[in-house]
Amino acid sequence: MWSAARRWVAGGMALCLLGAAQACGDGPEAGGSGPVVVEMWGWDPKYAKVADKFNATHDKIQVKYVKQADNPTTATNLRNVVKSGDGVPCLVQNFGELPGLLGEGLLADITDQLKPHVDEKKFKDSAVAAAEIQGRFHGIPTGAEPAYMIINRKVYDQYGISVPKTWDDVIAAGKALKPHGIQVMNLAGEDPSLLEQLVQLAGGTWYSVEGDSWKVSFTSAESKKAAAVLQQLVDDDLVANQTYQDRPALIAYFDEGRMVSLPTNVWQLGNYQNNFTKTLGQWEPIALPQYRDAAKYTTPAHSKPMIVAKGCPTLAEATEVGVWWSTSKDAIDASFDEKTGTYSWPGAVEDPSPWAESAVPQKLFGAYASQAVDVWLKAAAAGVDTWVVGPNYTAVFKELQDQWAKAVTKQITFEQLLENMQRFTVDDLKTQGINVAGS
Predict the structure, then answer these.
(1) How far is the C-alpha of 250 from the C-alpha of 303, rounded, in Å?
(2) 148-300+392-431 architecture in CATH?
C-alpha cells in the first residue's frame, strides 16, 4: 500500500522522468529569434484583455490565449490533450482543487521556477498556501476574494433587528424574522460552501498529513461546531433552499426582500446591481459573522491557483507570465470590465486597496456604499488558508453535494452528513491504495 507522502514524492519523480526538460526544467529554448509563445486557456472574458496587455508590454514572451466555452469544457479539453500529449497549453484557468488535479497527472512541478518569486514576497501568504502540495508548487497563486456578507438593512431595521456579528446573531435574526415570512439566509441544495467556510472559521480542515498517512477529520470538533449552526438554521425553518441552477429565478427571489442575509463575493455584486429592481440601495456590506467564542476576527481565504499543465515545454516562461498575471499593476488594470466598472479582485497581492473602490456597486449599496471598501480590506487582511485538500477531493465533493442536499432538506442531520462523509472519504482513499491514519 502506498503512503500519502510516498505517493506525492513518486508523483513528482514521475513528472521528472517523463522528460526532464519538459517537466522539471525551464523548457526548451525557442527556435530562431522570435519570442517564446506561452499558450493559455480560460473562459473568463477578461482574460483576453489581460493577455493583450502582456503581449503589448513584453518582447521575449508572448501569450497565445485560447478561449474555452466554460469551466467543464476546459476540464475535459485539458484532460484529453494531456493524455494524448499533443497540444498541451501551459497555463489554464483553474477548474478544480490542485491535489485532485495532481492525482490525475494534469499538473507540472514549477517549484524551481516559482519559489524565487515566493521568497521575494510577491504573493500574500494565504495565496501561496493553496499552490503548495507537500512542499512543492504546482500552480500560480491567485488568492481569494474577501469573505463577507451583505444584508437587506431596510428589512432588518423594519423589524428592529441588529446587524449580526456572530452566527448566534444570525440564528436569532432568523427566529425574529420567521413570523413575518422572511428567511434569514438561503442554503441552495447543491452548494455546501457555507459548511466549508464555517469549518474553516472554527479552525478546522477535513484533511491533514500525519507521517506517511492522510488523516480525515470530517467528525472533528470544529466540523461539529459548524454543523450545529447549520442544524439550527434548518431545524427552525429559518432558511430557503433556492437553487443556483435557475439564476434568473434566484436573483428575483433575492430581490423580493424575503431573504435578507447573503454571504457573497465581490465579483457577484455587479450582477445583483444590474438585475435587482426592488431592493437597490437596501443592501449593506458587513463583516462576515464569527463564532461567539472566536479569539480574533478571521475569514477563510482558500483559493484555487492558476493551473500549470503537465507537458508545458516552457515552464520558466509560463511561470513568468503567471506571476505577472497575478501580481502586476498592468495585469490588474487590464482586467477592468467596462460594463460593471470593476477590476478582477487582486487576491494574490498584499494591498488590494488601489482597485477596491471601483468594485463598489453604488446603486446596490446606496447609503451604505462608503462602508464597502473597509469591510473588504478588513476581510482580506484577516484571510487565512489552513484548508488542506486531499488527493480524492473531486470525488469527495460530489458526494458532499449529495449529502448536503439531504441535510438542508431534513432527510439527514448535519452530524450524519459528517459521519457519512468520514466513511466515504476514508474508504475512497483506501480503495486508491493510500494510507489513512487511525484506520
Answers:
(1) 25
(2) 3-Layer(aba) Sandwich (3.40)
